[in-house]
Amino acid sequence: MKSIVFIHVDALRREFSAAWMFAKRLEEQGFAVFLTSRSTTNYLLKFVVPDLLVLSHPFTISQENLAKLKLKGTKIIVTEVEGIVRVDHDIGTTYPDFVDFENFETIYVWNEWSRKWLYKNRDTKECRIKVSGCLRNDLIKSIDIKKDKKRIGILGRYELINPFDGRHNFENLRLMEKRHIERWHVDLDSFLIVRDLTAYLTQNGYKVSFRPHPNENVKAYNILKNFFGENFEVNEDFDYYAWLETLEKVVGTVSSAFLEPYFAKIPIICIDSLFEYRGPPNLEEWRKVTREASYNPSSQKDLYSLCLREDLVPKKSKRLDEYLYDLYSIKEKENSNAVDFVVNDVLGNINNLRKSSMFKLVIVLILKKLLDILVILRCIIENSGAWSLQNLKQYDFNPFFHRPNEFMIRSFEKNKKRNRTR
At how many degrees (to 10) do helices 338-349 and 12-28 cross? Predict the structure, then answer.
């Protein structure tokens, strides 16, 4: 008899590493755990009632279906994957009015601000709200910098000019409001800067590793690989942390992806000051504070000079440290223990957690494997938009394509060792 757990992985490159480690910790406690995705979760729930369902957002499954699952005995929790601090609009989007919080046992948020906001602005009387921090941060402390000199990472964010599903740009422009057009300018302006920087670095003997945004069409980068030559690579790995380990510096527009290299003490170069970039007003505090921990060249010449400097050290920002504590509830990367917090809370505070028979477990194993195969077959047959092999490999977790890498295994073993010595 084991409790059957489904963990929904909403976005492969954002969540798989942490979800896998979370699953391994639950398995150590005697759970039978299955990772599901956007292409499998809803279908699997039509045939199987898990004992515990772990979601990335409270609206991943329809509220009606969540209520049915709860009536059938499933305990449902949410572990935040997109935490927020001091931005009412964004947290209101993550936890919209229509969410019925009675469906959930616990919602694990990143910080105290979010917990208080939910208690104040949503009817959460039947649901516990607990501060766990961000599960992904448990991996950052395992980053072992093996800096490859003359290897610079560039963060891409060109999902508007290079959409993941290959749609024509007119598909977006025909409906887009004028106030959103700025993002097109940002994509184009920053692309030109990155293009020229890549040409300069590769011609000067540097390796440039480009990591596209998850919402981009990775295939399109073959054009650039052919253009820039062997010193240019496109990093398609789902694991961001393993990529960071290999870099001397990170370059890009201001991004939440700056926070991991900041924790890992990798120099960051922000190119925002090289073109006109305002960004949404509600994120002004975040942009300003995040840029404090990066180098902000004021000219193309300064940008090239910073990239070539081998003695460039990571910048430190007291204000960003304070902001990160408010956001993540940790002062240093070594303090992150979010996975174990959630595991221990599930063990200690979710009452009447059902256990399923071995027969049901075998049925789930067969159904899950069959469904993952059917998803692959559908992608081969349709091969367009969301249902394509490229999109599946890039965006949706599927165990036939995505297995734990060396970094994930090393991180899990390190965390297990730390727990034993506590």
Answer: 50
